[in-house]
Amino acid sequence: MISGTGTLLQALIDAATDPAFGIEIVAVGSDRPGVEGLARAEGAGIPTFVHPLARGGDRAEWDRGLTAAVAAYDPDLVISAGFLKLVGADFLARFGGRMINTHPALLPSFPGIHGPRDAIAYGVKVSGATVFLVDEGVDTGVILAQESVRVSDDDTVETLHEKIKVVERAMLLDVTHDLATRDWRVVDRKVHWLR
Ligand code: GRF
């Protein structure tokens, strides 16, 4: 699932070309038409769909439609790779526990859609990225992996976000590979890798 330029998606597309990586990307969905990430998917021959939420549209209805659109591809894992909408109860009833998201801050600090901006505004010296299991909250799910980056005095929102995206991409690939190829379960907010 994407909403934008799809550099995280591109990393997944590239990784998936190696069968040993252990995933097949069955579809790429976006809530926004015309974004670069969709073109990346099309270029790689991956089926795409767009499911926009109209301004003032019914959120529950949108969520039901999104659930059906994703369910049509019957994925084992749903990856939110820069998908900027919150999914709702229907979606989580079907895909909860097997949908991951990546966030450009060290959760629980700076949740929401402005992680790098909020980190700069607060003046932290270290930020980073978090990969977590999506739940009904805003960036509150079980943390699967985190990686830090130093914030320099001359960092801007843009330069910090670019630094974060470097570690974010590598971490998303590692977690995706592990989830796809190992047995795991979550107990008390901790992921246990069983083999
Ligand atoms: C990532 O930093 C993601 O965590 C954030 O938006 C960025 C997505 O970038 N929500 P891209 O669309 O994969 O280039």
Q: What this model shows, in words?
A:
- The protein folds into two domains: 96 residues, 3-Layer(aba) Sandwich (Rossmann fold), CATH 3.40.50; 84 residues, Formyl transferase, N-terminal domain (Rossmann fold), CATH 3.40.50.170.
- Helices cover 36% and strands 19% of the residues.
- It has six helices and eight strands; from the N terminus they run αβαβαβαβαββαββ.
- The strands form three sheets. The chain has a four-stranded mixed beta sheet. It has a two-stranded parallel sheet with strand order 1-2. A two-stranded antiparallel ribbon has the order 7-8.
- The site of 5-O-phosphono-beta-D-ribofuranosylamine has 15 residues, from α1, β4 and α6.
Question: Which architecture of the largest domain per CATH?
Answer: 3-Layer(aba) Sandwich
* Class from helix and strand fractions: alpha/beta
> For this structure, what is the CATH homologous superfamily of the largest domain?
Formyl transferase, N-terminal domain
Helical stretch tally: 6
Distance between the termini: 28 Å
Number of domains: 2
> What small ligands are held by the chains?
5-O-phosphono-beta-D-ribofuranosylamine
Proportion of residues in β-strands: 15-25%
Strand order of the largest sheet: 3-4-5-6
Largest beta sheet, briefly?
Answer: 4 strands, mixed
